[in-house]
Amino acid sequence: MKIENVVCPFCGCLCDDIVVEVEDSRITAVKNACASGRSLFLNAHTQAVQPKVNGEEVDWPQAIDAAARILNDAASPLIYGLSSTASEAQRKAIALADLLGATIDSTSSVCHGPTTIGIQNQGEPTCTLGEVKHRADLLIFWGCNPAEAHQRHFSRYSALAKGKLTPNGRKDRTVVVVDVRPTASSRRADIFLQVRPGCDFEVLAALRALLKGQHLDVDEVGGVGVVQLQDLVERMKSCRFGVIFFGMGVTQTGGKHLNVAELLALVAELNAYTRFTTMPMRGHGNVAGADSTLTWQTGYPFAVNFARGYPQYNPGEFTAVDVLARGEADAALIIASDPVAHFPRQAAQRLSQIPTIVLDPEINLTAQVARVMLPTAIYGVSAAGTAYRMDNVPLPLKKVVESPRPTDEQVLDWMIERVKTCLA
Amino acid sequence: MLGIINGEVYDPRNGINGEVRDIWIEDGKIVSASAASPPELGGTEGGRDAAEIIDATGLVVMPGGVDIHSHIVGAKVNAGRKFRPEDHRDHVRSRTSLGPPFRGEVRGATRSGSGYTVPSTYMTGYLYAEMGYTTVMEAATAPLVARHTHEELEDTPILDKGVFITMGNNHFIMNCIRNGQREKARDYVAWLLEATKGYAIKIVNPGGVENWKWGRNVSELDDEVIGFGVTPRQIVTTLAWINDELGLPHVPHIHAINLGQSGNARTTVEMIEALEGRRAHFCHLQFLSYGGKPGKRLRSGAAEVARAVNEHPNITIDVGQIIFGPATTMTSDGPLQYRLHQLTGNKWLNDDVEGETGGGVVPMQYKRNNPFNAVQWLTGMELFLLIDDPWRVFLTTDHPNAGPFFYYPQVIKLLMDRDYRAEMLAGIHHRARKGALLAELDREYSLYEIAIITRAGTARALGLQNKGHLGVGADADVTIYAKLDDKEEMFARPRYVLKDGEVVVRDGRLVHERPGRTLYVTPPYDAGIEADLRTHFEECYTISFDNYPVAAEYLPHCEVVPCA
């Protein structure tokens, strides 16, 4: 059976032109996807797996019971992850956090969390990817490497895409890459500006100064010649429609949200000359959805704590790494994420000391230290739902193969019901 | 069966003006509203014994409030929430177990939330219900992100809701107009409303939002839309024709051009006249009723606009009354939002949506002692008092653009109490006050008229046959108020609110959470249009045609409202 227009849930591009062939409930071929997407579909194992409690296989009601007890007994539970599951499951996870008075945080906090803080300071002139495809004649990629991390971004949405005002694709656009080292993306750029590591803020500030017509008394800023910066400013002012895509090279280097706020200010100011927009290169398939669902249910996009009965927001206090590293979390529910593999040692270690519950299709590193392992269907492969693209366009995920496993949403629903009866 | 007996009933659609009536409810519907007990109950005694009774003696009974224009969910609202943590910090709501059992029954729990001008979804549902409103229309959604809007609506409890779909800068429609294919545009609009599960056609700054993608705008009805060769006039008149052809329950819902600018009363009146008698609704008209010269000092142009509205019975309007205090401006009007960013220096969100529309968000603070804001405030008041027919002027604050919806009770007091109004007028900037027409207007709204501008009239304008009245067959959405002299207090804290016949609020506090329904339309269209649409999608969109429509699974609680 051939299934068309499948949305690939791997990265924030959410390419929705994937063709998947299924025979006997197995995916046999994948067309149009990049290497990562193809691998996600082809390696999707969907066989039945029993949940485990303390390493022992149990049935689902027993596993849910154990998980609910852990969460109910905790004084300060943490719910973390969310970015690789559907928004329907995210909404349930937030409901559970509200019910428990828990802390809830998504992978945003170790990724584009500083982007959110920058936006909260400065606003965000942005657009959907179709506007980039059809209008943008100047593309700047700053601290990101789509050629390797968002592999179809160039061809579907940006550098190579042929749009209404850009019928010749790459020839109709100027591509600039700003990064601390040459990358696969910089090799495809017209202009590459190599910034000294940690100097993004200075370079952005210099661009703002030059835009305002101020004279800089130096020859170079952050490793980039002022002549090159002046040239970039002229290109930005005179383009038809410009866009800056930015990644963790901006958000996770020294200065963090200050870098982002500076970048956003520059983009806003450019609108006095022409139309200019910007967009964070969101990584996980539905990390934008995690921001969205948390925001509409609580008012805040990440780092939310319900201990007082209402949502409080404080990155640095309620972010997952911090509540773990400080030893505040006394139980954890990890949904569709692998923090033991990615968190700083102190935070990762805490997860092995406290009762941890993992909800994930994969037996990842976190699952190996977890007290309760709840194996679920794979979103976008064996579970339907909704995901939000990096430009916040929501797309429907298909269930292309059947799986005997429950979905994240179902398991969270069971958990909510069980927690409610425990509370009563 | 549930009875609301001996209440002083205001049901303008059925001509009931403060008469004492008994209202009987069964299966979520009004089954009887009469001076005597319903005959089918087999006499007063037997019927009353069998039913739950709310004794409304001395209380005011109205249909549940119906809001015709409010921004409560979707991409723009959520972007506003996300970038305004400062709005939420001091305005929170705790989760509850809903207090003591109601009639022996424990009614579950409510969700927590936060936000003042942009509250979270659950909180929005609760706050509206606690103010006696049971139906709210989300005023603008870009079709491409309608799926997001419906996800949020499902998380907005109690209220019945509908979504207006922005179409005033849509490439497919503008191409059809240029090529003289209005029938094709009609079929597209019908398809689009079904695909997005929308309720009405919304037009925002027709052509201006497309031009903003070039850093420009439109300022006259006959300005050209770049790349399309069509004009705001053509867009508005074509969509008004389409609306009539499809027999949609509502009319085209129009946010006109030049919003917020001095002298825009002229272009607003021109747009009313351009419709040549076709029905339309003009939203938050206060922002579009200014005199003075373009770029110069702002003055009220309410008299000029109100005259045009009075002379054109095909037009309904809502006011978008300014509330002094914090607000969050959010519209699909991209160039307007950029202008507000420049004027205020406040942070600015912009979001251009491919081939369809755009939008932006800018925080705002309306101040009594700011001459500009003071003029805006009195312009809204003047519109309320100068438009003669209450069935054609409705209460909104264009939430959260002119102020939060939970200030409606204050606006009601301003309309019902001229002394309070005079007191407010005395407190605004002297330059705005000087020579203001408002000082001479001593009209006071009656409770009957308030019932029209907050439920009966809005329900009629929306084409909602089962809302905004208490006649037999109506949805049993009922609000019961204590009759107080202070009208703000009276309307801020209803004694009871019933949704579909169930008590959801008592004494101004939520006692029962239940889901509301999403109302949408499914006008017929020629399915032959899909081939054209597939080509259009391949050329214009970054998502496939098949992934665009919002499937029925997104609306587990819904109701199709029939077209004529």
Structural account:
The complex is a heterodimer of chains A (424) and B (564). Chain A is of the alpha/beta class and 424 residues long. Chain A folds into 2 domains: 179 residues, 3-Layer(aba) Sandwich (Rossmann fold); 168 residues, Dimethylsulfoxide Reductase, domain 2. Helices cover 37% and strands 22% of the residues of chain A. The longest helix of chain A is centred in the C-terminal third of the chain and has 16 residues. Chain A is globular, with a radius of gyration of 23 Å. Chain A starts with a strand and ends with a helix. By secondary structure, chain B is of the alpha/beta class. Chain B has a domain of 320 residues: TIM Barrel (Alpha-Beta Barrel), CATH 3.20.20. Chain B is built from 19 helices and 26 strands. In chain B, the strands form 5 sheets. In chain B, strands 6, 9, 10, 11, 12, 13, 16, 20, 25 and 26 form a 10-stranded parallel β-sheet that branches. In chain B, strands 1, 2, 3, 4, 5, 21, 22, 23 and 24 form a 9-stranded mixed β-sheet that branches. In chain B, strands 17-19-18 form a 3-stranded antiparallel β-sheet. In chain B, a hairpin with a 2-residue loop joins strand 22 and strand 23. In chain B, helix 7 packs across helix 9 and helix 10 runs parallel beside helix 11. About 1% of the residues of chain B have low confidence. At the A-B interface, helix 3, helix 4, strand 8, helix 5 and helix 12 of A face helix 2, helix 3, strand 7, strand 8 and helix 5 of B.
Quick overview:
The complex is a heterodimer of chains A (424) and B (564). In chain A, 37% of the residues lie in helices and 22% in strands.
